[in-house]
Specification:
The protein is α/β, with parallel strands linked by helices. It is built from eight helices and nine strands.
């Protein structure tokens, strides 16, 4: 049911010399080979999460709260990657619940997979009703529920660990959708999807003459010797 998406992921991996932050095929058999449950990242006292943040801080010579924002920008990009592409390709959206999501360090920053996925499809899709699918009359609402299940616990954990604002973190999630969808179509498609998803991601991106701008900062601009992202709200034209 995800043949087109999996083919796209395999092509993306080949084009990036194998450096892809989501496992082609999406599913991993177990938590072996360095995989760690995303649920563990969200569990107090957040030791596993702190390990990712501290490694990011060391890599970029960054304060801890900045490292947390940079880590999240990487994590959420790859978590959103198959969701946005699945929606764009044929409205077949793979959903990873927090309890099934696995993560491990990689050359892409992190790599994400799941021990189990559910595919949300629209009514009338030929695969509707087959095992592993859920039929949705409103894919935006279904994606929102998946985000709240799969990302909100991690955002709460990061915020408690480093005191970074939740809106900044959701801004990176919104940007992941916008950036990926802009690769295959106009900004309007991204805007429409974000609007249909609603809060917490709607309203955190705005159109700009060269694509879009964020309304919150990912803090990349504060890294030593690094320039602001092209979508940085610091560069917003008033």
């Amino acid at each position: 049911m995800l043949a087109e998406l999996n083919a796209t992921l395999e092509k993306a991996a080949a084009e990036r010399d194998g450096i892809l932050g989501v496992l082609p095929g999406l599913v991993t058999e177990s938590s072996a080979d360095g995989w760690l449950s995303a649920r563990e990242l969200a569990r107090e006292p957040y030791q596993a999460l702190a390990g990712f943040v501290d490694d990011t801080a060391e890599q970029w010579n960054a304060p801890r709260h900045v490292a947390a924002a940079v880590f999240w920008k990487t994590y959420t990009y790859w978590h959103i990657f198959p969701i946005a592409l699945g929606w764009s390709i044929n409205r077949r959206v793979p959903l990873m619940r927090l309890e099934h999501t696995m993560v491990r360090p990689s050359d892409a920053g992190v790599t994400i997979a799941a021990t189990e996925i559910t595919v949300a499809v629209e009514p009338g899709d030929p695969v509707a009703g087959t095992p592993g699918t859920v039929v949705s009359d409103d894919l935006g609402a279904t994606i929102r529920e998946a985000l709240l299940d799969g990302q909100q616990p991690l955002i709460e954990a990061i915020s408690k660990l480093t005191r970074i604002g939740r809106r900044n973190l959701w801004g990176s999630t919104a940007e992941a959708f916008a950036g990926l969808l802009l690769e295959t179509g106009p900004y309007q498609r991204a805007e429409d999807l974000l609007r249909s998803i609603g809060r917490p991601v709607d309203g955190l991106i705005e159109p700009h003459e060269d694509g879009y701008r964020r309304r919150t900062c990912c803090l990349w601009v504060t890294l030593p010797d690094e320039e602001a992202c092209s979508t940085c709200c610091v560069k917003r034209v008033f």
